[in-house]
Amino acid sequence: MKTITSFILLFFCCLPFHSRSQKIDTRVLIEDIQFLSSDQLEGRSVTTEGNQKAASYIKERFKDLDLSSQFPDYTQSFSLNEDLEQEGHGENIIGFVPGFASSKIILIMAHYDHLGTKGKDIYNGADDNASGTAALLNMAAYFKENRPLHSILFAATDAEEEGLLGAKALLKDFPFPLNQIQLVVNMDMISRSEDNTLYAVGTRFYPQFKPFLEKSGKKSAIQLVFGNDGGKGELDWTNSSDHGPFHKKGIPFIYFGVPDHKDYHKPTDTFKNIDQTFYTQACELILNSILEIDAVLE
Question: Which residues pair with 107 in a beta bridge?
Fold first, then answer.
């Protein structure tokens, strides 16, 4: 009886700790990426009906979370005419959680557009980049319930595949002075890896963040690797996604992603090909990194 009683006490003592350690709601995360990469969104190409469905999905989630925004209906519209030979507008979806100790800003980004359809093929873009978008939604939910020290602006950007147009528009019309941005965290392709590895790009330029990333990496079941930011003998992802325009302005960034895989920019980048375990662990690692950095930013 004593042994059974001790076991029961140990069981219940462990429950609160487990609930605190799991910051990402795996069920919601997987439901989000599954919807965002579904056939009904038809690849989410900019200006298409599927793209608008994705934008509406993100807006409704921000509304449900009761996030604030500096833009009406969470929407920052921007013209495509200046950059593309097509009419219409792109839409960045912007949510905001004010910090309780600072007006300085961490910008968390992920692009929600993809390549659309070509003939009968749907380019679902599960990894690229329904994965980053679903992660952004779940991080917004976390920080709404666990208010950060510094303010966090969540930006689901459009028209990345057309030349980082949404990021450029956000930079051009950022709703706060740019010097308030302390860090840009960009997530683009984070849901699969053949060697259980997630890259953190940018510490070559902004080494002040590396110790906090390393601390989070040591607690993770997946491997966090630094590089691919143009060092000797390395690939250079410095300007390969939406963090690029901000880096060119001298605004610090960390880009989380994986190397191009066999399904990159192909119709086979589908929900069934993501690694749900790796994806959840990657999201937890990124969120823990943001928490570590939020705790030390001045």
Answer: 153, 184
Give the Cα-Cα-Cα angle 197, 201, 207 (nearest 5 degrees): 120
User: How does pLDDT run along the chain (298 residues), one tens digit per residue?
Assistant: 434 333 333 333 333 333 335 689 999 999 999 999 999 999 999 999 999 999 999 999 999 999 999 999 999 999 997 655 566 899 999 999 999 998 899 999 999 999 999 999 999 999 999 999 999 999 999 999 999 999 999 999 999 999 999 999 999 999 999 999 999 999 999 999 999 999 999 999 999 999 999 999 999 999 999 999 998 888 999 999 999 999 999 999 999 999 999 999 999 999 999 999 999 999 999 999 999 999 998 7
Q: Is residue 202 part of a domain?
A: yes
CATH number for the domain harbouring residue 177: 3.40.630.10
- What does the DSSP assignment read for 126-159? IIIIIHHHHHHHHHHHHHHHS--SEEEEEEEES-
Q: Indicate the number of domains in the chain.
A: 1
Range of the domain at 191: 24-296
**Which residues, including other chains, have CB under 8 Å from residue 117's CB and lie 6 or more apart?**
42, 43, 45, 123
**Cα 29 from Cα 22, distance rounded (Å):** 12
